[in-house]
Hints:
Structural class: alpha/beta
CATH architecture: Alpha-Beta Barrel
Bound molecules: 6-hydroxymethylpterin-diphosphate
Strand order of the largest sheet: 1-2-3-4-5-6
CATH superfamily: Dihydropteroate synthase-like
Distance between the termini: 48 Å
Amino acid sequence: MGVLNATPDSFSDGGRFRALDDALAQADRLIAAGADILDIGGESTRPGAAPVDESEELARVIPLIQALRARATTPLSIDTRKPAVARAAVAAGATMWNDVSAQTFAPDGPATAAALGCEIVLMHMQGQPATMQRAPRYDDVVLEVTAFLADRARAALAAGVARDRIWLDPGIGFGKTLAHNLALIAGLDRLIALGFPVALGASRKGMIRAIDPAAANPGERLGGSLAIALAGARAGVAMLRVHDVRETVQALRVAAAIDAARQSHDQGSPIAPGAPPP
Length: 278
Ligand code: HH2
């Protein structure tokens, strides 16, 4: 999933793709680089971000979705917490609703998702973007995030969303310390065990700077982003939300080629791995 933010203030690409032509050119680059889906956002949810009102968010994303639909067949996702924005985006051609509030932002979220019939991403966040990084607290972050997402998936199912339309996302950086983020990445198998496809978004995020303080600028976090993408893929994550599509696709292909070589090496070897020596 390639990130395309039509916002003035997103932490990584804020302001770069506000003009329609700039956003379309970036979409072309993401698609050429191998993105399977584009995630269009009109409201930054980075730590400290101020909420955006509905009319402003609609004005940022709907013309872009319409223009993209007219020129490319790549599926489009709308990154929004607001049911009205999701409705307009799906009417304009989006087929996925990516909601960082896991449909808790408005009471009609789950019913709207069911009526739209689109795919939905339910993401975990503790608190709200403006204040979520002040003092995140969990007793057992993996257990709590998994239980919350299981609960939100149940709410979606109860509202009538089809089971095969639901994705889950642990929400890296959304009300979490470095230790929480690392525990969630290390414990992805627990979330995957719920049986829904899992999405992961850690591209260029602050947790990388927390490990490498020299990477003050989000553009300097490619190495860390790739390390997390590979860890996610290895754990069985089905979708990676990234800014650097070409580099991520390349890393995944190289890792897959090594895995394939390991398998054929293990099969061709006269001694099965783990077998006692002759
Ligand atoms: N992260 C961001 C936004 N949307 N959606 C999902 N499903 N998972 C994520 O991890 C996620 C997300 C934040 O990143 P970005 O869009 O690059 O920045 P901003 O929120 O400043 O627009």
